[in-house]
Amino acid sequence: MRARLALLAAAVSVLTLVAFLVPLALLVRAVAEDRATVRATADAQSLVPVVGTADTATIRLTAEQLAAESGRPVSVFLPGDTVLGTLAPRTPAVALAERGRSLTVESDGGREVVIAVQGRPDGTGVIRTVVPRAELTAGVTRAWLVLALLGVLLVLLGLLVADRLARTLVRPIAELSVVSHRLANAELDARVTPAGPAELREVAGALNHLAGRIQVLLAQEREQVADLSHRLRTPLTALRLEAESLREPQDAARIAAAVDGLERAVTGLIRQARRDRSPAATGGDAAVVVADRVAFWSVLAEDTGREFRCDLAPGPLPVGVSADELAAALDALLGNVFAHTPDGTAFTVRLARDADRVVLTVADEGPGMPAATVRRGASPAGSTGLGLDIARRAAEAGGGRLELRTAPGGGAEVRLLLAPPATLTGP
Q: How many CA atoms lie within 13 A of 39 on its CB side?
């Protein structure tokens, strides 16, 4: 933008200078020609009294003296064929002057000035002088150089002023861009110092107001999430008491473990909601997390008559996503299998290392699902539609991605490609 403003200022300055300097340059040349012509005419007219009254010898001497002083040829044509002073042929202008008409005409050598002198007893005399081209244009070249230099200086001055003006416009715009990027990177304390024209100051104030509103809305949302999560503690406590009252120790231990996991998730949600910024991912061991969650869901798979296949690579398998988020993602994927496939449907969990990534795959032999269900809130089965979105966000938080495809047996296959912690980049 700064370069474009400077180019615009240069173009306007050049056009303005051309509009003024070209006519001025032509006027300077015309004035110089007229000045030289007037001077030559005045010199020639000084001979009129001599030509009208003096004898031939006096006229010749006076004409030769004037020619020597002025540096121009001066000729006096008397009636007949007599030519005094500088010898020159009779031109058409001299012939017209012999009829009593004084005039100035252009010739090959310059500008010809002829003056008719009447009152001689033998007829009309003619005084002729020629203004050379060099005298007509004397000083014009220097004047044009001065005008050109003045034009260049004016253009440079215009560029300097335009650059100063552009800087006052570009600097606030650049600051607006920087603050916008900082806000996009979750630096909600970034603010713009209003500067520049009134329109830019208004935009800066609007951006600061927007940042403040975002902070307020996020704070309110965090508090609402934290309050809602805190309310879950009461039913969790009741559920824990119910689990402890079960007669079967294995069932009690299993349900208590599930309640502990849910309570940890609620506690983590409260802590995360009350943070001003999202903490950097600490990473976790995918082998440990997946083995733990597979052991939990294997009991439910046995109760529902599902064939369960597990293929876990030996650890450690560090990934960029935290253990809690990875566990929540796997729980969401396995929960989808149990919720959206009939009892007895087989499923597989695989954990493998692929080059520099860790791949977690959950596949089932059910009816499958369309790829559109990966969108947040999209669920053809009437659920919340957040399961796959939770898994997707967990994968992206770990520097990876989620892939949804059709399994070889016709069911759904979900793959989480997780990057190691070293490949993570900051916000």
A: 16
Tally of helices (H runs) and strands (E runs) in the chain: 12, 12
Question: Is 408 contained in some domain?
Answer: yes
In a domain, 239, yes or no: no
Identify the CATH number of the domain in which residue 73 sits: 3.30.450
Beta pairing partners, 285? 318
Tell me the CATH number at 335: 3.30.565.10
Establish if 123 belongs to a structural domain. yes
Report d(CA 110, CA 205) in Å as an integer. 72
Instruction: Compute the C-alpha angle 392/393/399, nearest 5°.
Output: 95
What distance in Å separates the CA atoms of residue 75 and residue 83, rounded to the nearest whole number? 7
Q: What's the domain range around 100?
A: 46-131
240-295 residue pLDDT tens = 667 767 777 777 777 777 777 777 776 666 666 555 444 444 677 888 888 988 88
- For residues 284 and 321, what is the distance between their CA atoms, to the nearest angstrom? 6
**Count of the separate structural domains present in the chain:** 2
State in Å, rounded, how far the first CA of the chain is from the last one.
29
Give CA 14 to chain center in angstroms: 27
